[in-house]
Amino acid sequence: MAVYTEVSDEALCAFLADYPLGELRAFRGIAEGVENSNYALKTTEGDYILTLYEKRVDPTELPWFLGLMQHLVARGLSAPMPVAGRDGVALRELAGRPAAICTFLPGVWPRRVRPEHCGPLGAALAELHLAGTDYTAVRPNGLGVASWAPLLERCRADGESVQAGLIAELDAELAGILAGWPKAGTLPSGQIHADLFPDNVFFLEDGGAPRVSGLIDFYFACTDLLAYDVAVCLNAWCFEPDRSFNVTKARSLLREYSARRPLSAEERAALPALCRGAALRFLLTRLYDWVNTPKGAMVTRKDPLEYLYKLRFFAQATGPESIGA
Ligand SMILES: Nc1ncnc2c1ncn2[C@@H]1O[C@H](COP(=O)(O)OP(=O)(O)OP(=O)(O)O)[C@@H](O)[C@H]1O
Ligand SMILES: N[C@@H](CCO)C(=O)O
Predict the structure, then answer these.
(1) In sequence order, which residues have a C-beta less than 8 Å from that of residue 265 and are 6 or more positions away?
(2) φ/ψ (deg, to 5) at 49
(3) Could you tell me the CATH number of the domain that includes residue 83?
(4) Residue 263 DSSP label
(5) What is the distance of C-alpha 67 from the center of its chain?
(6) CB neighbour burial string for 253-263, b if at least 16 within 10 angstroms, e if fewer
(7) Which ligand 1 atom lies nearest to the CA of residue 220?
(8) In total, how many domains does the chain have?
(9) What's this model's pTM, rounded to 2 decimal places?
């Protein structure tokens, strides 16, 4: 469940009075999502999403995230548009939490990823990167390569309870990743989503080929290597339930990405190393949550070991061709 902060009808109506959004018709809590409280709103003006930002989001970073979303939408990307109140301010407060209303995006995220989803996903990722080029405010990646050693330290005491030998394996992987990581300044960087998993990409599939209808959840977005975002997607979209890497999905994703933003020879060569790093990033954050989440806490834990086999796969990749690049 992801409605941590309850909002009464009266409080919501008073909050909405500061927006040019007409009268409230209906509202309901959305169960999906784990970070924030989300409500679907219907007003006489249309459909919206109300988000109350919970403790895992640093409130001082919200203007950067909302500013990025406004910027991307202004450049034609289908992303939630933060709606400003009558005073021009989008970031407000409700029930003691920072809060914002964004436009509602149509479509559903794919519960089972098919190869036909991966081309449109690659295209949307490239469009996001291109649209972000003139958003110049920098937000360093708090979960980037420099954070992985300290994160591994914080998992060291309890990580073995998840799988014997895990920490020694991750020590070796991290050493390999750091040794092969692209040197600063050698690859293009820009604004990346950094968490573009299937549950953050909506599609419309009205009988024909799936079309991306929107990208959501920009709260891990940051300034980092553009090709690292591609690596996150190869991890999240291109493995099958039997743990095999689906090179057809990877080729579709990369073909449609490159058709809009061609990967340089250096980016292509670095992709296996970036994929290995991205696998470690999601393994570590999941492992940290796994061993540190008290029973009954309102955070849904995800399986860290799903990323161990992905990590092993990318560690053994013989070159960009072996991952479809
Ligand atoms: N702009 C939007 N339009 C339509 N539906 C949305 C929108 N934003 C969020 N939702 C709905 O709310 C759900 C949860 O949103 P989101 O993934 O952003 O939650 P979160 O808790 O902030 O993040 P996380 O996925 O990291 O837990 C989505 O799966 C989707 O159903
Ligand atoms: N997408 C992340 C969680 C939310 O950011 C994961 O699957 O570990």
Answers:
(1) none
(2) -120, 130
(3) 3.30.200.20
(4) P
(5) 17
(6) bbebbbeebeb
(7) 26
(8) 2
(9) 0.95
